Amino acid sequence: MTTHNEVKANTDHSSTILDIQPGPGFIETLAVHDLTTRALAYLHAGYPVHFRGPAGTGKTTLAMHVATQLGRPVMLIVGDEEFSTSDLIGGQNGYRYRRVVDRFIHSVLKYEEDAIQRWVDNRLTTACREGFTLVYDEFTRSRPEANNVLLTVLEERLLVLPTTVQGESYVPVHPEFRAIFTSNPQEYAGVHTAQDALNDRMVTIDMHYYDRETEAAIVAAQSELAWEHAVKIVDIVRDFRSSQAYTQIPTLRACIMIARVTAMQDLTPSAWNQQFVNICLDILESKTTFVNQTRQQQRDMLIELIERHTTPRGAYDGL
After folding, report:
1. 39, CA 20 to 30 Å: which among 166, 192, 262, 305?
2. DSSP character for 288?
3. Which of 43, 316, 278 is nearest to 175 (CA)?
4. CATH code 3.40.50.300 region(s) in the chain
5. Cβ distance 160 to 168 under 8 Å?
6. Domain 5-86+123-206 adopts which CATH fold?
7. What mean pLDDT value characterizes the chain?
8. Given pLDDT bands bounded at 50, 70 and 90, which one contains residue 203?
């Protein structure tokens, strides 16, 4: 599994259709394959899937990967506090003017004008009409009332439109329409609690941090470091994560940051290399907490982790 996919966007009026292909460094380990297989089983049965987990667990990447397996164009929506229902389904956008001039009698000029509001579909409506796969990333960042329109879409397979839409009040949902959601339950700023009725309509798969081998494979693919170097960085971050001596949990992204900079500077992960040590401290030290330890104690803890995982036992006496 990787932290990104190759995405090509085709813009058609207000809707963006994504053509997503796996990136060149995509890694699918047994853990990723298991999650993908489980999600596809639910989606093929007609149930929406919800990937729930903390930051850095690959929810969005996995959602995109699963969406590609369905073989349909993808519509991406990213939750937002300012969203209203119209941001999902569409709305009146401008006017269409019509003018008729009557010169049937040459001495009489008669004309009439009228203006009709134009309805423009937004991404949810387009996905429902065309049978696209909807990926609704961080859907709990949108207010629950904005997401209420999804209730009939997911259960009754019917999208309810405002009655002012040129006599069209309902859009039958295409048989190929599928929906994938993601959310982060640990966020507290700008996040809303999803209504029970919506949660009850989807299958939630809780995601956690990947196993050591998967994380190392991802880091190696993303940074082009040798696996034996990537795994040292992963071990440092995983041990730091296990210590719980942080205010912000160190995720796979921290591993990739350290590995990429290390590779770009052609460094070897080693406690003997001060440049490498500084990179680790710059990226990890900002995540530490000083509730029970001083800043120097936290710094010493990180240096000890770097020593433990990059120096042969007994070969290093300290910085």
Report:
1. 192
2. B
3. 43
4. 5-86+123-206
5. no
6. Rossmann fold (3.40.50)
7. 84
8. very high
